[in-house]
Structures
1.
Amino acid sequence: MPERMNVESFNLDHRTVAAPYVRLADTKTLPAGDVIEKYDVRFTQPNVAHLEMPVVHSIEHLFAEKSRNHSDRVIDFSPMGCQTGFYLILQGSWDYDDVLALVADTLEDVLAADEVPAANEVQCGWGANHTLAGAQDAARAFLAQRESWSQVTA
């Protein structure tokens, strides 16, 4: 077994997970006592499939914007470099079902969107690298598997 690494996801055996899922990846208590939780929102099976970059980019913009309509405790929603999912970082301790509801409600907003927010040269570093249709297809596929979101391994 390799030595334990500082990055939580580097200690996860990616061969044993079964995407799609939503898993609590880490909880930290900051020096002032604030708690943050990091969730692994995995869209595709690691080392088998991935999301294309315009899809990743568009989901990032849409989820980051729309999730804050459901909670003021969203700190960040950022893509994984492997292009298989995202990290959702939330302030405070959350009930897992409330996290699932936040994800589902936000992805429903993605399906209802008529544009990718801030997908332009003024507000984005690569404004042309977006696809609303691709983001909606990925959101639709993820939502269709909601019953399996809590099952991380096969």
2.
Amino acid sequence: MTDFYLLDEKLTAQEREIRDRLRAFCDREVAPIINGYWERAEFPHELVPKIAELGIAGGTVEGYGCPGMSATAAGLVSMEWARCDGSIGTFFGVHSNLAMQSIAMLGSEEQRQRWLPEMAALDAIGAFALTEPDHGSDAVRLETSARRDGDSWVLRGTKRWIGNASIADVVIVWARDEDGHVGGYLVEKETPGFHALVMKGKTALRAVWQADVELHDVRVPAESRLPGCRNFRDVAEVLTRTRYTVAWRALGLALGAYEAALAYAREREQFGRPIASYQLVQDKLSRMLAEITAMQLLCLRLSELAQDGRLTAGMASMAKMNHAAKAREIVGHARDILGGNGILLANHVARHHADMEAIFTFEGTDSIQSLIVGREITGIPAIAG
């Protein structure tokens, strides 16, 4: 039982249908194979055409072959992917949320027509290249440069932790021009000078590929710059618009771990009876469900605010900060309930436990989210930028 407060009643029939269809897909297509891919650190390419058939890429984007779903439905999509697997959730989040939303929000009509229909059908995969080796939390200080040369822009620099970059058909590279303004540039696959090397040695999200990217005088046409991006505030607006889905993703990982722990506790017998009958286990399960229920309520309200256009950076950051910390705790309890079996991939909790460490950090660390909230509360920035 994970809907303790009967929150399904708050969803529309369409939102429930999207969630249930994706949940069935994950249980049928993803869960049976993902442990092997995760253990081998391989990306499951075989799933991409099957994901395309779901017709959910693009989320809230309207037109261009995108589903134009509600903000709540988009949150539920993020939740369901993470409930099953954080790696596939990250692949989809980078493509559908970060890359497609950037083009939808900041691109020209020609750029939207060129890319969004193909991306909605997953005939083209997108990536979002913001983070650099020396600039994560202070991404506003990015050093990748864009120099105008006739009818082209020439990009030079390095990026790190760029999900999908090694397989993407289009990578949105964020760079600073000669006037100091940050812009987004659409770099197509096999553009000379663009090199993406898959990162090795990860202990989380192993079934999605993140890459180190090198840009050696990468030349792109002038019309490849996103005209709606005038400065870093526009980039931050994209991040705010998508960050609420990360809170849903943390909820999904918590749900997946909780459901696995509950099922295990009912079946696992010690000292002659199921461990679910013991007070210590029931106490853990009760407290885990209480936190999940609070997370569900906050996510629903956050999506309502996003739908109404009233979502602020502080609101999104508060949810990410709270949910990542709570989910981390819940996944830890789940691993504890499974005992020694909790470190076996076959029981899924070990994968969630590892992946949660990445989600706790990406799209803004716990500390940075706190300072974004603090700035909105006090009106005083505690960090530069």
3.
Amino acid sequence: MSEETEKLLSKTPLYDYYKRKAVKLIDFGGWALPIQFTKLAEEHQAVREHAGMFDVSHMGEIMVQGEQVADWLNKLVTNDVQAMKVNQAQYNTMTNEAGGTLDDLLLFKFSDTRFLVTPNAANTEKIYKWMESHKEKSITIENVSNSYGLIALQGPKAERILTTMTQTDLSILKSYSFFPSEKFGDIEDVIVARTGYTGEDGFELYVSWHQTQQLWDKLLKAGAYHGLKECGLGARDTLRLEAGMSLYGHELTEEISPLEGGVGFAVKVDKKDTFIGQEALRNQKKIGLKRVSRGFELIEKGIARNNYPVLNSEGEIIGTVTSGTQSPTLGKSIGMMLIDKEHAAFDHKIWIQVRKKQLEARITKKDWLKNREKKKEGM
């Protein structure tokens, strides 16, 4: 990446740190971010076996407040906001009138009148404008993305590492819950959420933008004994793919509904509050999906990348690869695809056009990590 291009990119609070360490940066959705610090496989395995730390400060944060804010949010998202308790997080999607996915995001409930919405980096401005265009008089919406840095500490030793830095009992924090204001030395008001994007236990730490570097350094020091590694975007992608987690722009787009994209668990078509896209999604469910998201494993050697065609035995295109990689944990090539429902039976053979070759593969569930755990238990 040229210096001219880099100057035009948005920078996280760790940008100067990256430059001092001579970490190679790439253009990721308009942000200057590291693809890796050392070797991708090493960073990946550190998260699976010990712990890894990611700078995800490019993600968005939008604060919404108002007496009827839960009712209002429930009309914009597919999951049931009314089911949330205080200090609980919820995975969600926003859809357009046709049921296409505007974004997948997390909601954090601080109180009955205050929520934090966290969209994907590339969608922050789109989601902010969408929310503003549907704003009710009693609601206030503020894009506070420039106020927060965000560090993801992930892996089986994440709790052990973070426990050394606080007096709070982190073991009582359940998955998809959060502490709204924690202190780490002289770093105050850190939101500690038991959430992540790797398939492992871990935390996401929302910290003041100007104290992000300070918290990063503290975590590195605390985690040195436990095998903590700094991790880049490359490991983040292979980890989430092994965990079967959808990525916006791949499994989910404005042309792909959350039902089609594999996150139907976050769609409550029969909830009391009518939301934008509800009718379209209800019809999809009633009539039956014409295409679905599935996992696959290549039988032949190779890697199937995004947008590669998926074929049946007659050579007809029946789907498209949405994500693909060589799995460091499994030692095989895996991926996800959007495929015609009539051809989507598990264990069926398919072929993927990888450059000039058609490579044989089989359709799988996205439970690669669960299968790994079963194998461990049987050893």
